TrEMBL record, chain A:
Stretches assigned to the 2-oxoisovalerate dehydrogenase E1 alpha subunit N-terminal domain: 5-44
InterPro entries (alphabetical): Alpha-ketoacid_DH_E1_comp (IPR050771), DH_E1 (IPR001017), Oxoisoval_DH_suAlpha_N_dom (IPR022593), THDP-binding (IPR029061)
Functional note: The branched-chain alpha-keto dehydrogenase complex catalyzes the overall conversion of alpha-keto acids to acyl-CoA and CO(2). It contains multiple copies of three enzymatic components: branched-chain alpha-keto acid decarboxylase (E1), lipoamide acyltransferase (E2) and lipoamide dehydrogenase (E3).
Source organism of the structure: Chelatococcus composti
Protein name, as recorded: 2-oxoisovalerate dehydrogenase subunit alpha
Catalytic EC class: oxidoreductase
Automatic annotation (TrEMBL), chain B:
GO molecular function: branched-chain 2-oxo acid dehydrogenase activity
Keyword Oxidoreductase attached: yes
Record's protein name: 3-methyl-2-oxobutanoate dehydrogenase (2-methylpropanoyl-transferring)
InterPro entries in alphabetical order: THDP-binding, Transketo_C/PFOR_II, Transketolase-like_Pyr-bd, Transketolase_C
Cofactors demanded by this protein: thiamine diphosphate
Length: 410, 337
């Protein structure tokens, strides 16, 4: 025993903090097109290395290459570009609205637009997402009206959730978007349950669960994997690794696991890592996983490697914990610019048309905002009623709550 | 004496506890390098190093579970749950483990941990940044439950909680972090620097757990309050002109029953206020104790003013929050009975 030195605690720390030079040289980026595309009924044991690589389609020259390319036509890609641009413009306007006091809170997607926008296109009507607060692209690409999103953000008289929920905690059953919870991780295992229900009911619909890198530390994540594995639930389990969980770098949640995707391996769940800033790669991998689920082959775990360019939320200032220029050093680039460059290269788009489209998209967001503001904003104009506060706790209001509502004079 | 916000007072308490006792370790989500989303632990990692103040994975169960294990070893963890609304994943560890380890091991193992968490509403935080779940913990034997209402108490109570040999749930009413709040949301915030209780001794001192404090002397009706509601009650007393005696309970478990009984026997009337929902709230325990111990002195039914029995809404925040108007009405009702 004598030759054992004293123990010491290992506490991971990011390579660089404010004042340092951003450095992502420890993030190996495989060449676009270099990762094979297995058949959907592959034995999970044969693709363990996909949990440690990064599936990429768009190369530096803006070409789509390799076995995961070739799934989307010009029109579909142009539509995808427009969805991402819309989400970005939407974020910009809502951040401004928050600063103007029209809402209390906002969370943006800057840099992560491809993940939710492209994934949505791989789903069918009737499928159900169990999202976090950073997948509004599912709604935008799913055709949910921006005005309704804004009505929710402004907590106004037309808010579909009656002012009860924090801004951006949307819910739309009709658009396959489960009610967002503020409690991290809870939705991930619920997605598995929804998928199990679909299987129990001999339905054909599938579910998609969503979680952030940081939140994979919650027990709900691990419970989701074990249930999905045991019952081979028809579910796609999505981890959005944007490198940060508020001020905490991804190494704290990842720990000794090489990657987040690798968490799936012990459960026998096929696990893939994908370039989250590559619209084509996200779509291709999503389609693969969705097909597996729909063919009753069971769950797939996907890690989207991306970067949270903006602040965590309007309550956060990242300059306190990471270098200001870190996002510029991020090696996977900007998802909007990458898809634009690809479309230009294909001859389906031009810088000129892109600038025009930016203006059009912004106009449509502003028009939606004008419409929404007619119904009020948080502190002015039309509001949800105080009665709404008492409704919906139960299907039928019990006597004690009726008494309280009466006491409140509404 | 220096002036401190409640955040600075809490930071000072932890700093002093870490300085005095190497066994004190501090951790939680965003608590290390950044110093906490409310900055209560800012600078502590830089001062005491990464193994005594660190960031954790986002797992409240993990935070509390490892704290319990460290306490079993002999450390004194003071951990943060980012918002009280996020404590539920740790509930099993707190209720089935932390609270009972001393009892079930006959004292072989103990659990001297502090679990800090911001609680309460008033910041448009919606249902997941506004809750007051104290009653879920006062119902658990083996725990102590503390709710300070000002910087001086926050510091003294937190040092006492860290010193305490048993697990303490420490709620920090977040609406009080930067100044007292009486429910008049339309008025500008008064900073702690302009309030006498913002004067906080820079050194070591404790405020004992289990001792209430009379915040306002009065003869007509006793108001039992804690946290933000202390100031709401003060405003209600001023605005109604009713000579209320306002007791800041400070520790809910164990409760300072003597202080309560002495006051209610004097005034003959009692109103209980809290932000948390009504049904099975801590007010129910208080009302029961008051009628048990003061029944023959009571001249009016014990009143309760609380949050409504709904999840905490976002837009209707001020219709939900039990503000001075509602508390004032209860005072008038108590006087007219
Ligand atoms: C149960 C729970 N614990 C803590 C929080 C506070 N919180 C909100 S977001 C967040 C970080 C989440 O990071 P990540 O999962 O990586 O998602 P991202 O914000 O990067 O999209 C934390 C700690 C919470 N909402 N719920
Ligand atoms: Mg993240």
């Amino acid at each position: 025993m004598d030759d054992f030195p004293p123990l010491s605690l290992h506490v991971p720390e990011p390579e660089v903090r404010p004042g340092g030079t951003p450095d992502f040289s420890n993030v190996p980026i495989p060449r676009a097109g270099s990762v094979p595309r297995p058949p959907v009924d592959v034995d999970p044991r044969d693709i363990r290395d996909l949990a440690f690589s990064i599936i990429r389609v768009l190369n530096r020259e803006g070409e789509a290459v390799g076995p995961w390319s070739g799934l989307l036509c010009d029109e579909e890609l142009l539509e995808g570009l427009r969805h991402m641009m819309t989400l970005r413009a939407f974020d910009a306007r809502m951040l401004m609205a928050q600063r103007q006091g029209k809402t209390s809170f906002y969370m943006q997607h800057m840099g992560e637009e491809a993940v939710s926008c492209a994934f949505r296109k791989a789903l069918e009507p009737g499928d159900m997402n169990f999202p976090t607060y950073r997948q509004a692209g599912l709604l935008i690409a799913g055709g949910y009206p921006m005005v309704d999103m804004m009505n929710q953000i402004f907590s106004n008289e037309a808010d579909p959730l009656k002012g009860r929920q924090l801004p951006i905690m949307y819910s739309s059953k009709e658009h396959g978007f489960f009610s967002i919870s503020g409690n991290l991780g809870t939705q991930f295992v619920q997605a598995v349950g929804w998928a199990m229900a679909s299987a129990i009911s001999n339905d054909t619909r599938i579910a998609a669960g969503w979680i952030g890198d940081g939140s994979t530390a919650e027990s709900d994540f691990h419970a989701a994997l074990v249930f999905a594995s045991t019952y081979r639930a028809p579910v796609v389990l999505n981890i959005v690794n944007n490198q940060w969980a508020i001020s905490t770098f991804q190494g704290i949640a990842r720990g000794g696991s090489g990657t987040f995707a690798a968490r799936g391996l012990g459960f026998g769940i096929p696990a893939l890592r994908v370039d989250g800033n590559d619209y084509l790669a996200v779509y291709a991998v999503a389609r693969w996983a969705v097909e597996r689920a729909r063919r009753n082959l069971g769950p797939t775990l996907i890690e989207y490697v991306t970067y949270r360019v903006g602040a965590h939320s309007t309550s956060d200032d990242p300059s306190a914990y990471r270098p200001k220029d870190e996002s510029e050093a991020w090696p996977l680039g900007d998802p909007v610019i990458r898809l634009k460059n690809h479309l230009v290269r294909r001859g389906a788009w031009s810088e000129e048309r892109h600038r025009q489209a930016e203006a059009e998209v912004m106009d449509s967001v502003i028009a939606a905002q004008k419409e929404a503001e007619k119904h009020g904003t948080l502190h002015s104009g039309g509001k949800p009623s105080v009665r709404d506060m008492f409704e919906g706790v139960y299907a039928e209001m019990p006597p004690h709550l009726r008494r309280q509502r009466h006491q409140a004079g509404v | 004496m220096p002036r401190m916000t409640m955040i600075e007072a809490i930071r000072s308490a932890i700093d002093i506890a870490m300085e005095r006792d190497r066994r004190v370790v501090v951790f939680g989500e965003d608590v290390g390098y950044f110093g906490g989303v409310f900055r209560c632990t800012a600078g502590l990692q830089q001062k005491y190093g990464r193994t005594r103040c660190f960031d954790t994975p986002i797992s409240e169960l993990g935070i509390v579970g490892t704290a319990i294990g460290m306490a079993a070893y002999g450390l004194k963890p003071c951990v943060e749950v980012q918002f009280a609304d996020y404590v539920y994943p740790a509930y099993d560890q707190i209720v089935s483990e932390a609270a009972r380890i001393r009892y079930r091991s006959n004292g072989q193992f103990t659990c001297p941990i502090v679990i800090r968490m911001p609680s309460g509403g008033g910041i448009f935080g919606g249902q997941t940044h506004s809750q007051s779940p104290e009653a879920l913990f006062t119902h658990v034997c083996g725990l102590k439950v503390v709710v300070p209402s000002n910087p001086r108490d926050a510091k003294g109570l937190l040092i006492a909680a860290i010193d305490d040999p048993d697990p303490v749930i420490f709620f920090e009413p977040k609406r009080l972090y930067n100044g007292p709040f009486d429910g008049h949301h339309e008025r500008p915030v008064t900073p702690w620097s302009r309030h006498p209780l913002g004067e906080v001794d820079a050194g070591h001192f404790t405020v004992p757990l289990g001792k209430a404090e009379v915040r306002r002397k009065g003869d007509s009706v006793t108001v039992l309050a804690y946290g933000t509601m202390v100031y709401v009650a003060e405003a209600a007393a001023e605005e109604t002109g009713i000579d209320a005696e306002i007791i800041d309970l400070r520790t809910l478990l164990p409760l300072d029953l003597d202080c309560i009984v002495e006051s209610v026997r004097k005034t003959g009337r009692c109103v209980v206020v809290h932000e948390a929902t009504l049904t099975s709230g801590f007010g129910a325990e208080l009302a029961a104790l008051v009628q048990e111990h003061c029944f023959y002195h009571l001249e009016a039914p014990v009143g309760r003013v609380t949050g409504w029995d709904t999840p905490y809404p976002h837009a209707q925040e001020w219709d939900y929050f039990p503000g001075p108007a509602r508390v004032g009405e209860a005072l008038v009702r108590a006087m007219e009975a």
